[in-house]
Amino acid sequence: MTFINYASREINCKIVYYGPGLCGKTTNLQHIYDSTAPQAKGKLISLATETDRTLFFDFMPLELGTVRGFKTRFHLYTVPGQVYYDASRKLILKGVDGVVFVADSQEERMDANIESLHNLEENLQTQGYDLANIPYVLQLNKRDLPNVIPFEELSSELLKKGEPVFEAVAKDGTGVFDTLKAVAKQVLTELRKG
Amino acid sequence: MPRQCDKFFIAVCHLDLPDRIASKFHNSYTNPRQLFLRENKMAETPFIIQERQFHRIKSVLARLCVECAARAVFLVDRDGQPIAFHGEIGDMDTTSFSSLAAGNVAATTSMAQLIGEEVFPAVVHEGERESIYISVIGRSLLVVVFDERSTLGLVKIRTKRASHDVATIIDEVARESEDFRLSQNSFFAEITDDDIDSLFT
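^ Those are the sequences you sent over. The predicted structure of the assembly is below.
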């Protein structure tokens, strides 16, 4: 839910990175954090297990600039991807303005992608959202690995509504900012449309 | 203090509360049916806080900070957005603090429901020197950070009083957000593709 403060001239939006376990959601945020100037970002908070698996969420605030005198700030969240953390995923989706689905392009992770995508739709519905009506971008991550499903095949399996699709290698940053820009633009365009 | 439970509210929504009962709830943060309906509607409506409302909230927080002898007081949206704060903030990362407070309450609310409680209306974290008291007020959280200059009992009592003022303002913000957005639609409509593109150059 977009938060607009006329007193401090700020527009705040929430973007959630979703996807199966170990698909690269946290890696996306880590790259965004490492590549962003200090004055445009807050801390990267990671609530993780001892083995660096996201336990609850990762969070970082990102300031993109001003639009018509309003500072635009995006609050980026990731959810834990492992199946048994569903209760936590539901909570993190509350108030979401835009979603990035990060898919793991490896062949053996196809079922996990589909299950996670289905889970996203269900959890959005629980919160009163419809994936068809919210800003949404698909990222196909890990494109550098040898056993990846071809782009056309993977896209056709996972595309939901003709959303923008980006190939990515999050560990070196390929496609990370393109993905973020695409979802941020959609969120702001939605706001403009009212 | 408003309470929240999906099953409870679903049940209430299917009742026709007589006026003599409905009239006892003076704002939607104590009216369970209105709170449930608002929570669901607010999945779509931007939350727009106007200057006068923001200053009123700041005023309530400032007064609470003094009355509690607190180090700092925050008002945070339950989705994790900071709304306002007052006190000895120093170099505290208020954005992260707000996000974590919201995550904290989201998790403990789910835990409460697993054990048959509707919600934990208050959460306390006591440290060696600094403590945190979080109270749930409908869509928002009142977070008080205090040290040895205050006591938990004092914070609880003063926060309870301030909660009513906060609830009234937030309820007004929620009610007026949609109308205000429509009246400012020309402002949002003026945002061009170039304005948005310029953010990414």
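Chain A has one domain: 3-193. The domain at 3-193 of chain A is CATH 3.40.50.300 (Rossmann fold).

Shout if you want it in another format.
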